[in-house]
Amino acid sequence: MLHSSRTMVVGARMYARLYTLVTVLILLAPVGFAVDVTYFKTVDLTLIPSAVKNGAVCLDGSPPAYHIDRGVGDGAHKWLVHIEGGGWCDTTENCLNRTKNIFGLGSSKIMQAKNFTGLLADNQQLNPDFYNWNRVFVRYCDGASFTGNSFDPVNQLHYKGAKVFSAIVKDLLGKGMSNATNALITGCSAGGLSAILNCDKFRSFLPTHTNVKCASDAGYFLHVKDVFGEYNYANFYDRIVKLHGSTKNLPRACTATMRPRSLCFYPQYVVPHIETPLFLINSAYDAYQIGFILAPSINNLPQSWERCKNDTTTCSQDQVEILKGFRSEFLGALPKLGNGTFRGMFISSCLAHCQSQLQLNWDSDPGFRLKDKTMAEALGNWTNGRSSVQIIDDNDVPKICLTTPL
Ligand SMILES: *[C@@H]1O[C@H](CO)[C@@H](O)[C@H](O)[C@H]1NC(C)=O
Ligand SMILES: *[C@@H]1O[C@H](CO)[C@@H](O)[C@H](O)[C@H]1NC(C)=O
Ligand SMILES: *[C@@H]1O[C@H](CO)[C@@H](O)[C@H](O)[C@H]1NC(C)=O
Ligand SMILES: *[C@@H]1O[C@H](CO)[C@@H](O)[C@H](O)[C@H]1NC(C)=O
Ligand SMILES: *[C@@H]1O[C@H](CO)[C@@H](O)[C@H](O)[C@H]1NC(C)=O
Ligand SMILES: *[C@@H]1O[C@H](CO)[C@@H](O)[C@H](O)[C@H]1NC(C)=O
């Protein structure tokens, strides 16, 4: 356990490299900053070896894992379960490679401790609504947002995401979550998608008296044509769903009618069927989605798009119109406005991806506020029933939101 209590001075600089997952690089610099945004707490890994006999294993057959920091005071019976992100694997080769991923995205043998920050921080000033809850960081180790149930004996690849999800939730129930008054499942990116796809499943594991909600950060991937006029990303999702045997574990109300069924990997087709309250944190100009869904670097993507993706100030007027079109489609694919208790939203125009774990985006940098509200306040209010929240940035051009001085 490590507490950084130094009042550090922080600067930051945005790299507009939209094809990379990480868009924010924090540099230490001699400038005063009121809140210690560099604070973190290192939390050890907890393995679930008993899950292995039930076939609930990571891609390489190793046990599933999570990190837990126990709740205290009036948070002792409240649970925040946050699922890690990290893309997906759609071919045998990519999944084999994933078992060796240095962050442990396919194997708990490689996983290390985790620094808790942002919505996972245990500091009241930095995380006023969740700091004293039981906070769990679920390690993503299956490569299909915890939906798979298949096995490749030749390559010894275990596509068991759906079982891993159940095993982790059951383990947490035994550690006190079965007595939860409140339970919120969240996640970022592929983990945010997992929180959506597994939202009602999570609900079903908890007692009826528990107030259960779901929230997705940067997990609302859009089914949309790319700049080639094709659905290349939908083909990628189709390969993931087939390889992992995920169809049976996608929400049934969607797969009953949707064709192809793999489209039920998309939030916009699943969310209308979800019965549990859901909150969406996302940018309508999600940096990952622009780089990988709208303008993927395949089939000789024009250099002008590579430049525009990397630095939106270089985009031509035509490209700006295409970006705006993406935003319009994104907003159009969101749940209908009106019931902000059932479907909360915090939708920015920031060139960002996965924000809730970054202290600056979560509540510290004013540039990430919408209508002068922080993400922390929006999700905190909504989760605790203080207000219904549907906030969408009116700004219709992509923007760099980091304003923390260099
Ligand atoms: C394998 O994974 C590494 C990162 O862990 C990546 O850089 C590399 O491109 C991957 N190779 C293939 C064939 O997917
Ligand atoms: C936690 O953050 C500190 C400071 O940035 C870093 O030195 C350390 O390696 C991090 N630990 C983990 C487990 O990521
Ligand atoms: C739930 O609460 C009851 C009553 O306080 C207690 O006996 C039980 O052990 C708790 N269950 C867990 C899993 O902590
Ligand atoms: C990306 O943009 C940065 C400035 O934002 C620039 O320094 C860099 O050269 C660009 N890279 C490419 C590959 O265009
Ligand atoms: C919001 O939706 C929920 C679930 O459908 C419903 O129970 C509730 O009455 C709705 N509230 C409003 C104000 O429409
Ligand atoms: C959160 O709730 C407080 C107190 O009810 C209220 O003043 C504030 O405006 C709310 N913020 C949001 C984003 O709804």
UniProtKB/TrEMBL annotation:
<keyword id="KW-0964">Secreted</keyword>
<dbReference type="GO" id="GO:0009505">
    <property type="term" value="C:plant-type cell wall"/>
</dbReference>
<keyword id="KW-0378">Hydrolase</keyword>
<comment type="function">
    <text>Hydrolyzes acetyl esters in homogalacturonan regions of pectin. In type I primary cell wall, galacturonic acid residues of pectin can be acetylated at the O-2 and O-3 positions. Decreasing the degree of acetylation of pectin gels in vitro alters their physical properties.</text>
</comment>
<comment type="similarity">
    <text>Belongs to the pectinacetylesterase family.</text>
</comment>
<dbReference type="GO" id="GO:0052793">
    <property type="term" value="F:pectin acetylesterase activity"/>
</dbReference>
<protein>
    <recommendedName>
        <fullName>Pectin acetylesterase</fullName>
        <ecNumber>3.1.1.-</ecNumber>
    </recommendedName>
</protein>
<dbReference type="Pfam" id="PF03283">
    <property type="entry name" value="PAE"/>
</dbReference>
<keyword id="KW-0134">Cell wall</keyword>
<dbReference type="GO" id="GO:0071555">
    <property type="term" value="P:cell wall organization"/>
</dbReference>
<keyword id="KW-0961">Cell wall biogenesis/degradation</keyword>
<dbReference type="InterPro" id="IPR004963">
    <property type="entry name" value="PAE/NOTUM"/>
</dbReference>
